[in-house]
Structures are given as C-alpha cells and as structure tokens.
Design brief:
This protein is an alpha+beta fold and 449 residues long. It has two domains: 11-133 and 145-178, PmbA/TldD fold; 220-445, no CATH class. The protein has helices spanning 11-25, 80-95, 128-141, 203-216, 234-240, 243-246, 249-253, 314-319, 347-353, 405-409; strands at residues 29-45, 48-66, 69-75, 112-116, 146-162, 167-184, 187-195, 226-232, 265-266, 274-277, 298-303, 306-307, 337-340, 356-360, 363-370, 375-380, 384-388, 391-395, 399-404, 412-424, 427-445. It is globular and about 70 Å long.
Length: 449
C-alpha cells in the first residue's frame, strides 16, 4: 500500500491557495486570514517550575459569500487536501443559508500590507526559565512564602488575501508574565509584566509587587457594606471599564453595550479619554490590517468624556451611515489596542485624597446583571486595603463590588499619570490603563463571607 504524503503549506502559501480555490468555486467575496503563532509557556507553582512547553499553531480563517449569503469559519489543517475539504464544506453550507438583509461586499482596495506591529524577534529565543526564576526570587525576597504563575510568550505572523485586492503580512510579539504570591493561605498578591520587547521585560518588578502585596495582606478583616471611594489599580481598570469593546457598533446595535446608539453624548467625566490604535508605537502587540483587509488606524472613542466614535466594519458602517474604522471582525468590530489617557495624579496622591475608601489591586469573576445598563459585579482578588483619612490601614477580604459602568464613569475623581500595559485571561485586548479613584462605589459582602 502506498501512502500519499500531504505537503504542509507555509502560512503565506495557504492564504494564496485558499483564495484561488474559493474563487474557482464561484464565491463572490473572499477573505483569507492565515496565522502562524509560535507560543512558549513556563508554568510555576510553590516556587518551582512545573511545565515548559513550546507549540506552533497555524490557523486559517475563511470568509466567503455567494449571492448575498455569508459564512465564516476556521480550520487548523494547513494542507491542500485539508483546505479543499474545509472550503468545500463551508461553501455548501453557505449556499443553504438565507440571504443576508445587510450584506455589504468586501471593500475594493489595492493595498499591500508588509511590516511589523510591535515585534521583537528576540522573544522567540528568550531565556524564559531564567526570567521566571528572577520573578520567584524577587517575590520571595519581598515577603512571599510561595509563588505561582505563568510566563507566556508568542511570536505571530499574520497573512491576508482578499478578493477585494488586499494582500500582505505583519509580525507581532508578546511576553505576558502573571505572578501570584502567598504569604499565608489568605494573604496573596498579584503582579503583571506585559510587553512586546525583551528590553522592556521586568520580571523582578512583577515578582516584587506580588510579594510585597502578599506580605502586607496578612490577617485581613471585613468591612461594612455600603458606599466607599475606591482606588482601582490598572489591572482592575482594564477589566471593569470595557469602554473600547463596548464601542463596537455590533455590540451597541445588539443591546450588548452600555453605550448609547449615537455619538456626541457625554458618558463620563471630562478628564476621561479612551482611544483604539491598530498599532501603538512601543506598545503591546497590535495589528496592521483588519479582517476585511483595510488598514487599522487610530480611532478616538472618548474625548474629554464625550462618546465620539463607534468601531465599525463595512457592514455596521453602512447601517450607521458611517465608514469602516478598520476594526473588522467580519461579524463584530473589535478594538486592537486600548489606550486610556493619562491623568495628573500619583497613586500616593489618590490615597491621601481618600477619607473612607478601599484600594483594590486585582479582581476576577466579573459578571453582568444587565449589559445594556452596564450593571455588573466583581470579586476583589488578592490584596485589598481599607483607607482612612488618607492612610492605608488594615487589609480587607470577603467583599464584592456591585455597581454600574455608567455611574462609575461619571464618578471618576482622579486618574493616575502612570499607566501600565495589561493583558491576561481577564483582559484579552492589550490595554494601557491608569489607576483611578472612583467615588461612592457600592461594596457588598461576597457569598460565604
């Protein structure tokens, strides 16, 4: 018996081949995105490395239309036979779908993308084990007894071919360190370091912050339910104020956003500015083109508290009588890089300005009771501290934040000058976030406290 060996195509060959094959089937519109990502992970627990892993993954995203019918799918089989079978299947499915009421053809462009987002070729060969050991040692030296977490790195090559004429590629890289330190079972601290560049990576600082918070959070107490002025660190702000993702026109139209269906509305204090960038120079990750092949761009979302721009793909732009902002998502537009504007305060100044408040350094389990009104709850995780008359007092635990995003945006009192890049499993979009002091936040007791 003779076995036929299927040649694995390069990612660039895949996009070219898939576009040609889709055209031969008679598709009206085609967008092919190919991603090759080299990922490395080092996990650590109880002060020791427990896993070192390296993976290369190739993903092909195919969007095609036929007679106003649309379909989108992904495959992980980078062979000619695999591509043929996948496209045949989704094309057959597409022809059985109802026609789209809001069909818009892919934009006709003559654009060749070729460059880098935020990319450092040294990330692929960085000494990850050495970096993790630095983080662990720094955390232990700051007061932790045991340290856990993960260091994840990725080097991405993205390619695109569309029937509208867009073609090209870009490269990006990320290094994401998450450190969780414990001084006691109920005394923990969290530290992050997120960057695209080895030269900016500082595992010792992330470990130091986690260890110091853990040491200071021993013997936590509870606080009474009620309203407090709360200082949120950048890690928390990036999670609880999803202004940029909520600016997706699809989310607004679908009732999945707290933002109004029209722009030029005041939604926050005038000190708040929020922008989306395709690529923020010197930042974290980013992308040069969107899923329709249009160049990404800088889009101001909130300027001095005024909601200025939604994020659009071609379909939502037609519905809202606007233009694409280069944020496709074929189905739903999404931000590439979120940047909160800097304020004029330091964290110490925020603490001095707080008479009856709480400092929250980390959170998880953010859940929405009503996405349209922005009502949500979240549980502080790791170190949190009561503040009285401008000074940090004892650590606190067993609390929950129950509030609404619109109310919080209108009650921002101070914004820090210093901002930090945030990305981890609670924040999927790279976000440059400051700390904020927000007035009159509703604090309740967590279940079981």
């Amino acid at each position: 018996m003779i076995l036929s060996m299927q040649r694995v195509l390069s990612t660039e060959e895949i996009t070219n081949y898939a576009l040609d094959y889709s055209k031969k089937l008679g598709c009206d519109d085609v967008s092919i995105l190919g991603y090759q990502i080299d990922e490395s992970q080092v996990r650590f627990s109880n002060n020791s490395i427990t896993l070192v892993n390296n993976v290369r993954e190739i993903t092909v995203q195919v969007y095609l239309t036929k007679e106003r019918r649309r379909i989108l799918g992904s495959t992980f089989n980078p062979t000619e036979q695999g591509i043929n079978k996948f496209i045949d299947n989704i094309f057959t499915s597409c022809r059985s779908l109802p026609q789209s009421e809001h069909y818009v053809a892919l934009p006709k462009v003559d654009t060749r993308h070729d460059g880098r987002a935020n990319f450092d070729e040294r990330v692929k060969d960085a000494d990850l084990v050495g970096f993790v050991k630095q983080a662990i040692d720094s955390s232990l030296g700051s007061g932790a007894k045991r340290v856990s977490g993960s260091l994840n790195t990725s080097s991405l090559e993205a390619f695109i071919q569309t029937s509208g004429g867009a073609t090209g590629k870009y490269f990006s890289s990320e290094m994401l360190l998450n450190v969780r330190a414990f001084a006691e079972d109920n005394a923990s601290g969290h530290g992050l370091c997120c960057t695209s560049y080895v030269s900016d990576f500082d595992p010792e600082n992330a470990g130091r912050i986690a260890g110091d918070y853990a040491k200071r959070s021993k013997d936590p107490r509870t606080v009474s339910e009620g309203k407090y002025d709360v200082i949120f660190t950048p890690t928390v702000i990036a999670n609880i104020l999803p202004v940029a993702s909520s600016a997706s026109a699809f989310a607004i139209e679908s009732g999945l956003s707290f933002l109004p269906p029209e722009t030029e509305r005041e939604i926050a204090v005038k000190e708040l500015n929020v922008d989306d960038y395709g690529v923020y120079e010197g930042g974290l990750g980013g992308r040069l083109f969107d899923d329709e092949g249009l160049p990404t761009q800088h889009t101001p979302i909130v300027i001095q508290g005024i909601f200025k721009n939604m994020l659009h793909n071609s379909t939502t732009a037609k519905k809202f009588k606007s233009r694409s902002t280069g944020n496709a998502g074929i189905i739903s537009p999404f931000p590439s890089t979120v940047v909160f504007g800097e304020g004029d305060s330091s964290l110490d100044e925020m603490i001095r300005e707080t008479k009856n408040g709480i400092l929250i350094t980390n959170n998880w389990y953010t859940r929405y009771q009503n996405m349209r009104s922005g009502e949500y709850s979240t549980v502080p995780r790791d170190a949190a501290f009561r503040i009285e008359n401008g000074e940090i007092r004892e650590p606190v635990s067993g609390i929950r934040i129950s509030d609404s995003i619109p109310r919080q945006l209108s009650n921002i009192s101070l914004i820090s000058r210093e901002r930090q890049w945030i990305k981890w499993w609670e924040v999927s979009t790279p976000t440059l976030a400051p700390a904020m002091l927000i007035k009159d936040v509703q604090i309740t007791k967590a279940v079981g406290s």
